[in-house]
Amino acid sequence: VRRSVVWVVLALVAGEAGVFLWKNADVVSLSRSADTLAADPQFTATAHRVLAEPDVTRRVLERIADVAARRSDAALQLQAITRIAAAAPGDRHVQLRLADALRGVGRLDDAAVLYRALVTPAGVPAAGGPQ
Amino acid sequence: VHDERTDPAVARSQLDPTPYDSDSTLTHVDPPWHRALRKVSAVTALLVYVVYLGYRGLYTLNPDALVFSLAVYFAEIHGFFSLAFYYFQVWTVRGRTVRPPVSSPTVDVFITTLNEEIDLLRQTVRAAVHMRYPHRTFVLDDGRRASVKALCEELGCDYITRDTNEHAKAGNWNNAFATTSGALIATFDADHVPRADFLERTLGFFDDPRVALVQVPQRYHNLDSLQHRVSWRMRRLYGEQDVFFNLVMPGKDHWNSAFFCGTGAVLRREALEPFGGQLTGTITEDMHTALALQAHGWRSVYLNELLVTGLAPMDFSSYSSQRLRWAEGNLKIIRHVNPLTARGLTIAQRLCYFASMYHWTIGFAKLVFYLAPPLILFTGQFPIVRFDRQFVGFYLAHVISLVVSYKILSRGTGRLLMDELFNMANFFTLLVAAKRFLVGRGEAAFVVTSKRGGDQSDRVVLPQYVLAGLTLLSLVWSLLGLGFGVSEDVVGAGVAAFWSFYNLALMVAVIGLALRPAQKRQAVRFRAAVPVEVLGGGDGRLGVTLDISEGGCTLLLPQPLPTGTALRLRLHFGPQTVECAATVRTGHGRRSGWAASGVQFDHADLRTVDRLADAIYNMAVPEIFSHLSQPSWAARQWRYFAMRLRGGLRLRAARHESYLPVRVTDQAGEFFATSRDLSASGLSLVAPRPIAVGSRVTVDIIAGAASWSSSAMVVRCTPVSAPRPEFSTFQIALRIDAPRGKELAGMLAAEAA
Questions:
Q1: Complex-level ipTM
Q2: pLDDT tens digit sequence for B241-255
Q3: For a FRET experiment, which of A7, B284, B471, B500 has its CA 20 to 30 Å from that of B163?
């Protein structure tokens, strides 16, 4: 009986792992090393599929942003960092990265607004508009 | 059958015509400040619980997982009512003082049986016949067995049977009720062995003409049953029903709502006449009948004394079927008599009876708590909207107040972990009972609970297997999610994982209980240190038993005996000796210098079996329960500390619990005894006769292969009464002559090793 129980448990765990891999194949594929992902031609498509999901963890978003930066894919990097910033609105470091990403895709006005907000002391309204 | 009730020497007239109120026998078991502390802690815990539930309802329900959130919330509300009912019932725990009966009511004793083994029934019937108060014993056999009829003829009691088994046990009982005439009826199950003084202790309450029922607790002498946990070292016994019989029933007695539990009770015929005996239509006729009696204004009495012991289910299958019957029966009573609306009950009685029924609905709440952690780990959804410091604060305040108050109100009896273990064991059974109650299966069948054991099946714990598998898979799923970054809520997963492991431990423990090795012995073995002389085949050696039953014992002797050796043994049960032939069946190796052997008694006649049974039930059983009644570790430390504060602690040599055969010689001759404890200055032992304090004796102590002798002085001699006087003994304390103390200390060290 004990041996059967052990085999049943192992089979169930293996089956569960299979279901998990099938259900989260894209996220699992993004857990490979950054170098591997940077060289993977499927990376962009995978990243876009993941970003289309409503619940993506910060770790995965960071991985996408990191690999996108290596691949000089500024648009994808901005997309990932925008999601990170939306989940952590009070994180000044993330806001700075968002501003850099905006600058990287040429959206200088938006970047400037963010830069200015970051250097303005709390309680003082930041000056708006491109200057 | 000679009817002792007609014996003018025995029958007594009314000696005390003054009205007697049984409430005058109620006593408080706690001092006043304990009672105040318990009430304050109960009220505090309930208030904290109410505040916690309010906070939970207002601020923490999770709209993203509303069904899950509400399920957990309602399970917590169920828990609140469970706790409130429990605290209400144990609000004031009462004891009873016993007074001998003044009137001389006639008594019939009913023993109901269907298919129980004849050797089991034999000892119950013998014990019933030997109860001292004049009575007639009736065996009510629904099995219509010639062997039971022959047993009744042999033992001098009446045999009653019927053509059908209509209404099962209650129908059997009512059939006898209609054909007998005793003013009072004592009732026992086939496995419940009453003490000789059972009637003497219980009948006095019936001098109050309003008392319809006296119930005593059900204790079980098969301590290796499924529902017991024994620590011989700590001298502690846990029984699953201890809280009920030690706290809830004495608490119900305070509210005049102690109920009939089917066995170990005395009932007044006059009260039952309008119903024709016990009520039928439910499978828990005992509680149903008690409820009806109290609705008619009758009183009940609960006497918390060890007056009868029986057998608890040995295997999980029997245990579950018994609990299913109790749960289903208790819930279905509400269809016949709703305690909340029935006429004639006080508010307290309504609450007490409703609480007893409500208890059986806990299965739903427990299922929610068992499923919650896997749901959290699989879905990432929580039953609370956020797990923050505020929630943790409220939750900890609630849990701490609950645990502390439960411990305070449970007076050392309740053990939360063990209670949770049996909740895990029972939850599915209770769900089945609730389903049968709600969906409305017809009249349920009364199934006699098997007490023999032997059914080792893991099918009965299939729900626990499924839950354990689900919990395990959810843990793996959560780990995979965290590992691959699908989830990142480490704190939430950690909390759910902790909860899962707690539940998993309970599930594994329950599965372990179900897979315990099957009981193979024919008779229950009782732990007892009985000095044994080996008369034939053992060179006159003196040994001691480790455990004993009517069928055999584990015998410790200085030298091992080969398997198959035929022996003639003389067992010294205090003042009584029993001689029997025996055969060594197994060798159990050596223990502390002793060779342990499994010995089977070869009984030539039933008389020897009966004498052994008498000795066991009158000496071994009371001693076991007395031995295992040690207060909890915390209570002992507190008592020790208080005694030190008061300066009442007497310094004495360290005592070691030790059960060694001792030969004692004094001026009147010699006798055999077993030691109870040893120290460097002396020993105490259980002797068959008294010895005057100050007199000198010679003791020969056998300790495995070694023996040791010395002269000693008797410093204390205390009588130890037994249910039957012929088994009464004396606890004797001896002071060893000083020069030999060091040697004794050396022997103690060897014995301890």
A1: 0.86
A2: 999 999 999 999 999
A3: B284
